[in-house]
Amino acid sequence: MTSGVASSKVVQVRTCRVVNQSTGQVILDRAQVANDVWSRFWGLMGRRSLGPDEGLLIEPCSSIHTMFMRFAIDVVFIDKERRVRKVATVPPWRAALGGGGHAVLEIPEGMASHSRIEVGHVVSIEPLP
User: Fold this and answer.
1) DSSP 12-50
2) pTM across the whole model
3) How far are the Cα atoms of 25, 44, 73, 94, 103 from residue 91, in angstroms, in the given order?
4) CA pair distance 27, 24, nearest whole angstrom
5) Phi/psi of residue 28, each to 5°?
6) How many CB atoms lie within 10 A of CB 56?
7) DSSP 53
8) C-alpha span between 102 and 98 (Å, rounded)
9) Which of the 8 DSSP states describes residue 98?
10) Residue 77's Cα: distance from chain center in Å?
11) How confident is the prediction for the chain on average, in pLDDT?
């Protein structure tokens, strides 16, 4: 099947577990991973909300936008050593730069403070089957 799109690659969604190693707290048991062009492009666009235990890890990624989104999110920018570089709440129709981030964890608004995620903390990203 062709669609006029340069690539007909099927997007494979992976999942991972994200843990704040600095506090020992599980941030998300199952986060979707966006690590190819199309899954990073679509991100959370078009969704009506993000459930309390849902999130998206985008890698590589050094900035995000919430254009075409209907809800605010917390974003956690993570560098290559998995250290938190920046934490921000981003409302719809805004953008955020990561200040040296290599990956971004998009989680429900308020979850970053609830999970006590702070700049300098180290997170682990554990692939799930």
Assistant:
1) --EEEEEEETTTTEEEEEEEEEE-SHHHHHHTTTT-S--
2) 0.86
3) 25, 13, 7, 6, 19
4) 9
5) -140, 130
6) 24
7) T
8) 8
9) -
10) 8
11) 88
Tally Cβ neighbours within 10 Å of residue 18. 23
- When pLDDT is averaged across residues 43-67 and rounded to a whole number, the result is 90
Written as six digits, the tokens of 34 are 């966006």
Which of 43, 37, 47, 46 lies closest to 75 in space, CA to CA?
A: 43
First to last CA, the chain: 28
For residue 105 the two structure tokens come to 């964890």
Mean pLDDT of 53-74: 93
Lowest-confidence region among 45-49, 59-63, 85-89, 115-119: 45-49
| Pair of tokens at residue 48 | 């009506």
**Average pLDDT estimate for 50-79:** 93
CA torsion 87→114→55→53, rounded to 10°?
Answer: 180
Could you tell me if 55 and 16 are in contact, meaning their C-beta atoms sit under 8 angstroms apart? no
Q: Which residue has the tokens 């062009």?
A: 37
- The backbone torsions φ and ψ at residue 75, rounded to the nearest 5 degrees and listed phi first, read -120, 135
